[in-house]
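INTERNAL AUDIT FORM
Audit reference: QA-55
Scope: verify that the stored structure record matches its stored sequence.
Auditor: D.O.
Record contents follow.
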Amino acid sequence: MRKICLLFLFIGTLSFGQTNLPQDYFSNPLKINLVLSGTFGELRSNHFHSGLDIKTQQREGIPVHASADGFISRINVQNFGYGKALYIQHPNGYTTVYAHLQRFAGQIQDYVKENQYKKESYEIELFPDKSLIPVKKGDLIGYSGNTGGSGGPHLHFEIRDDSQRPMNPMLFGINVPDAHPPIISSLFIYPIGEDSHINQSQSRTKLRLIKQKDGSYKTEDFIAFGKIGFGVSTHDQLDGASNKNGIYSINTTLNNRPKFEVRFNKFSFSETRYLNRYTDYEYFKKNKSQIQKLFRENNNPLSIIVAEDDNGYVNIKDSLDYSYTIKVKDFSGNESLIIAPIKGLKTEILFPRDTLKTNDHIFSDHAFSITKGKFEIYIPSNSLYDDVYLDIQAKGDTLKFHEDIIPIHKNITITADISNYNDEDKGGLFIGRLNPWGSIYYVNSERKGDKLVGKTRNFGDFAIVSDKDAPEIKPLNFSEGKWISDQSDLKIKITDALSGISSYRATINGKFILMEYEYKKDVLTYDFNDGINEETENNLRLIVIDNVGNSATFEAKFFRKQI
């Protein structure tokens, strides 16, 4: 009976996707050929990619069109993340998202600017009434850009269901040419049980893959025993691009019986950080390559795992032979196959697990408070996926908080005692995270009396850092007392060496002006088309504040003939 139920479970998941979803409803939001730099579900740092990244020919300003009828339901402008983003609610319950825009179009741009000036803030989030900005399929809504956390010009495009869960846009008939099968980079085996081993070792083992004449792969001969799991490093490459994109599905069998299937159709934002549980976090941190584990460990609720038998684990018995297969597919159905013949043999373990043991043993389902020197650490329950030993040491103003090879799911609080500092110096202190090359990353730190409190979702080295230097401000396209009638904007570079920029405010002749912040270039830009400066003689004043409160003020006079 179990075999029959399992078979129906797999058949049911195979049928999900192209059925009951509108196939001609949504159109390409760009009037250019679809070439992708990123696919749905692609493995990113700490999250799954929630849409399609559409290439824009390495340039900005390409018109972006509404993918279907609806109304603008949300507009979000932020320095990081999605940058300038539009959300369209559609009558069928779906929402489309258009992110990293250079600017909005027409009425939308006017509406956003009006509200930014009302709030006197570049960053803004708006939820227009559904009757305010209706759109028809194909209407111009904005222009492609590189704002926010974008690594280059492109359009990030999403389709979300009525619960705001991102879905694979390719399920809706948005097809992208792909004639290439997924590329298999490497295959690994993990001994799971106490007495499990692979080739007499209890460590993660990489298997050599041998390409066959038909294009499939076969592993080198190996022996195994006990409870084991497989992991694969793979990516896809679509037509017209060299990017390493995500795959669509992986399914495995043992002796022709289904064992495990993952399929990138849909997920929720609440589960996306569990990517760090699904992949081999330690391997990624050390090798910059993602391994997808083809088994479900404890504390992994991911819905992309659509079918499994015994959580995908394989139990190898002594003196028996097995055939384990892995099929990796892209959305177009191109397939890569791995066949792993397993020889079951219980033998002596020559290379046992090397387990670090310290005085700080953390149980994942318990909360812990730990004091080391002048640092207090609070680890909420379920912040970690496994019970672990942590290497925690403090020396003066520095804290070694293990090594960043274990994923953290919830924020861990670090509190530093700063009572030994002079009162005048305490205001410039923050908790910084040190990378191996000596750079300091600001950890959002709040001062509470003689305590500094910060939160982190990464292990590593931390320190109490003093920032006494104000931000630096430098004009880029104008200078004191000059005429700039032929310029369309003002550009100013702002930098801060340690804690980073927190806020800024600019005025011309005492009136607030909106300056857009491009953090990747450290540049503020004011567009003269906003019409705030109506005088020939203009006095600019800019105040920039860093994350610990140091401020810098820049003042300049310029002249501009009104047209």
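Auditor finding: record pair retrieved intact. The chain has four domains: 15-172, 183-344, 360-466, 472-559.
Action required: none
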